[in-house]
Amino acid sequence: MSHFGRTGPPDISDTYSLLVLNITFRTTADDLFPLFDKYGNVVDIFIPRDRRTGESRGFAFVRYKYADEAQKAVDRLDGRVVDGREMAVQFAKYGPNAERIHQGRIIEKVSGVKGSSRSRSPRRYRDDYHRDREYRRSRSRSVDRYERDRYRRRERDSSYRSRSRSISPDYDRDRCRGRDKKHQRRSPSYDSASPARRSPSPHKIESPRRSLSPKKGTPDRHIPNERSPSPRSRSPPVRAMDSRSPSPRADEE
DNA sequence: GTTGAGCGTT
User: Where can this protein be found (predicted)?
Assistant: First the structure.
């Protein structure tokens, strides 16, 4: 049976922890178990997951019983392609409680010691937890995308100025127009998210509460439909387009 | 459905 990660840490004082990075987001402990078990006795495998989405973060922890097995696993599984991705296997530098570990083995206990290598205390779980997650996620998913987009736009602008007009702008515009004239949308995110709530301040990265309640972001789409069980006696034939115009006009086009 | 630097939980 492989119930790694389901329960708490069994025992890490007598095991060697390996950090597996660069694994796919769909790789589970059950997938890593046969790979690591071939090179030694795997005591436990744990894959940190996001508490919001519940998906893997892209790395896992594999605990071996002996150091030689762990070393062998590192030497053999480091760079191994799993699920189409190269995973990096190395010894863990920090323990679950920020204790310093050498070669996957804990050399310094955290019992009674406050402010370890990373100054992490088990008492501040919630705030630092979410903050840490948000912080580390921003640089991997959002920031990177933003920077990439900005860089791309800048590059395009640079090309636009340098080459005056050669291929880029006209081609892009033509392609967009030739593709679909009526379905022209500036951004695919604004269309579904909130067109009236888009903030003109790009310096603000993002609001954390946006992920907390995504349903409340667009309540006017489903609420009025379900909250009005009898629209015939309450509201007149509502037209989607003229819902905001108080003056009904006969001319349509 | 997506993403890619890093160090962990019943």
Answer: Nucleus
Task: For nucleic chain B, give residues with Cβ below 7 angstroms from it.
Answer: A 5-9, 12, 17, 19, 21-25, 44, 46, 48, 55, 57-59, 61, 63, 85, 90-96, 98, 101, 118, 120, 129, 132, 136-137, 139-141, 144-145, 148
Pair A69, A39: CB distance under 8 Å: yes
Return the closest nucleotide (C1') to the Cα of A98.
B7
CA distance A239 to A231: 12
Residue-wise pLDDT tens digits, A65-122? 999 999 999 999 999 999 889 999 999 998 888 788 877 676 665 554 443 344 333 3
Q: How far is the CA of A76 from the C1' of B7 (A)?
A: 21
